């Protein structure tokens, strides 16, 4: 399932309801939306009562449309699903940076397409590099690119746990629930 509504349903199901874990720097969350994000998007109520449709609208706008993962979905739906899920957990700029880094490392020293800036933003050059990668690598290209992005994501989770022991409380869940097939 790679349509945005299905992806949002999966993220909300995975994130669950209200949480305020002492080790989580994000503080109070509901449906995976932090209080800071909810406030920045106009929700002023108690986080225990954040409506699901408000969370879904935030996910659609901030974690799908604004970072242009919808444009990636037109080309590589599995990559877009991974970017969305990673963006929800680490921020869209981090997710996009993983894509850009992987594309640069997989361009066969610039023979398939030129390196792109690792600026954390999906623009015409990133989309052109993705198109060129998929054209050069064929059917398996999307699968291999997905593995590269997930490898970068896994390494970041390990680094987060190593650099802040409180994050060890989340490492198992991150690896179990975030690395793999987020888009079903």
TrEMBL record:
<feature type="domain" description="Peptidoglycan binding">
    <location>
        <begin position="96"/>
        <end position="178"/>
    </location>
</feature>
<dbReference type="InterPro" id="IPR023346">
    <property type="entry name" value="Lysozyme-like_dom_sf"/>
</dbReference>
<dbReference type="Pfam" id="PF09374">
    <property type="entry name" value="PG_binding_3"/>
</dbReference>
<protein>
    <recommendedName>
        <fullName>Peptidoglycan binding protein</fullName>
    </recommendedName>
</protein>
<dbReference type="Pfam" id="PF05838">
    <property type="entry name" value="Glyco_hydro_108"/>
</dbReference>
<dbReference type="InterPro" id="IPR008565">
    <property type="entry name" value="TtsA-like_GH18_dom"/>
</dbReference>
<feature type="domain" description="TtsA-like Glycoside hydrolase family 108">
    <location>
        <begin position="9"/>
        <end position="91"/>
    </location>
</feature>
<dbReference type="InterPro" id="IPR018537">
    <property type="entry name" value="Peptidoglycan-bd_3"/>
</dbReference>
């Amino acid at each position: 399932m790679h349509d945005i509504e299905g992806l949002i349903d999966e993220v909300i199901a995975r994130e669950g309801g209200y949480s305020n874990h002492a080790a989580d720097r994000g503080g109070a969350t509901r449906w995976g939306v932090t209080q800071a994000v909810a406030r920045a998007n106009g929700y002023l109520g108690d986080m225990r009562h954040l409506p699901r449709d408000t969370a879904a609208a935030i996910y659609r706008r901030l974690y799908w449309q604004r970072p242009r993962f919808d444009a990636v979905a037109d080309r590589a739906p599995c990559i877009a699903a991974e970017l969305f899920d990673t963006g929800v957990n680490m921020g869209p700029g981090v997710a996009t940076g993983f894509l850009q880094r992987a594309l640069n490392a997989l361009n066969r020293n610039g023979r398939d397409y030129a390196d792109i800036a690792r600026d954390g933003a999906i623009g015409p050059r990133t989309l052109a590099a993705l198109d060129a990668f998929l054209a050069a690598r064929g059917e398996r290209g999307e699968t291999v690119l997905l593995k590269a992005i997930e490898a970068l994501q896994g390494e970041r989770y390990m680094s987060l746990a190593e650099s802040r022991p409180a994050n060890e409380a989340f490492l198992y869940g991150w690896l179990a629930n975030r690395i793999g097939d987020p888009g079903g």
